[in-house]
Amino acid sequence: MSAPYSGIFPIVPTPFDDAGALDHDGQRRVLDCMVDQGVDGVCILANYSEQFLLSDAEREMLQTLCLGHVASRVPVIATCSHFSTRIAVERCRSAEAEGAAMVMLMPPYHGAALKADEEGIVAQFRAVAEAIDIPVMIQDAPLSGVTLPVPLLARIARELPTVGYFKIETPGTADKLRALLAAAGEHIDGPFDGEEGITLLADLDAGATGTMTSALAPERIRPIVTSHLAGSREEAEALYAGMLPLINLENRQCGLRATKTVMKEGGVIRSDAVRHPLAPLPAPTRETLLRMARDLDLVALRWGK
Predict the structure, then answer these.
(1) Which pick of 2, 87, 271, 302 has the fewest CB atoms within 10 Å?
(2) Do the Cβ atoms of 157 and 149 come closer than 8 Å?
(3) What's this model's pTM, rounded to 2 decimal places?
(4) What is the pLDDT of residues 268-288, one digit of tens each?
(5) CATH assignment of 7-243?
(6) Using N-to-C axis directions, what is the helix angle for 85-97 and 118-131, rounded to 10°?
């Protein structure tokens, strides 16, 4: 049996041109830039990939492009969330067939009010787990509006052996990770956090073994994780303290636009456009972001120059 996945699996942004069309060459450069930074894997088609602004055809094309271009250089997690269990299963089968190492899904939801109950949630994850042979990660994120209590997640981990990865990014992530590991730790292969690493140190202290940040600064965040996992908490804390101002700016002020802004400035992509109704970064925030990125000499800020 292979070792569980751990480390940093940043989210792959989706570059567009200034008119909002997919930038295929830019997508390949984004992937190369990320792999060159020594990431442990990447995640495609996630929320920070603007998956909610992609058509089904675009999503399928991007999955093929990304998996083909990465070509197993690093493991790829494909996000396959959908309210429909049938469509979620089809997406997961397609991802596995094209070479994904893992799939990630949020619980079934549609809008603010259409959500599955606990049995429906379990049934969807069971259907996915029985349809594929690769691991499944549950994304527990506020965006879904679905509450996933620890007893429910522990039940899924116990009942579905291939659902062994959990990305927790709710308020109180560290406490939830700690409680989940206490309830079903022997069934969990990968406790991960997200949210750009805004609570990374606390989450590592609670038992997280991986993180799914943006692609803004993986070369700076990975050493925090590896140091902590190696038992060097003081070193991890010092590294984290150096990154926290930028992490805070990204998480609270920029969102998914931060990576695109830095990658455009660094020549990785030609445009930092986001699709409407998302709006570009305000100029003062952009200036602050780029100044902080320069101070840290981020790889993405110079990779394409």
Answers:
(1) 2
(2) no
(3) 0.97
(4) 999 999 999 999 999 999 999
(5) 3.20.20.70
(6) 30
pLDDT digits (tens, 9 = 90+) for 157-179: 999 999 999 999 999 999 999 99
Where in the sequence numbering do the catalytic residues fall? Answer: 167
- What secondary structure, in 3-state letters, does the chain show? CCCCCCEECCECCCCECCCCCECHHHHHHHHHHHHHCCCCCEEECCHHHCHHHCCHHHHHHHHHHHHHHHCCCCCEEEECCCCCHHHHHHHHHHHHHCCCCEEEECCCEECCCEECCHHHHHHHHHHHHHHCCCCEEEEECHHHCCCCCHHHHHHHHHHCCCCCEEEECCCCHHHHHHHHHHHHHHHCCEEEECHHHCCHHHHHHCCCCEECCCCCCHHHHHHHHHHHHCCCHHHHHHHHHHHHHHHHHHHHHHCCHHHHHHHHHCCCCCCCCCCCCCCCCCHHHHHHHHHHHHHHCCHHHCCCC
What's the pLDDT score for residue 2?
Answer: 79
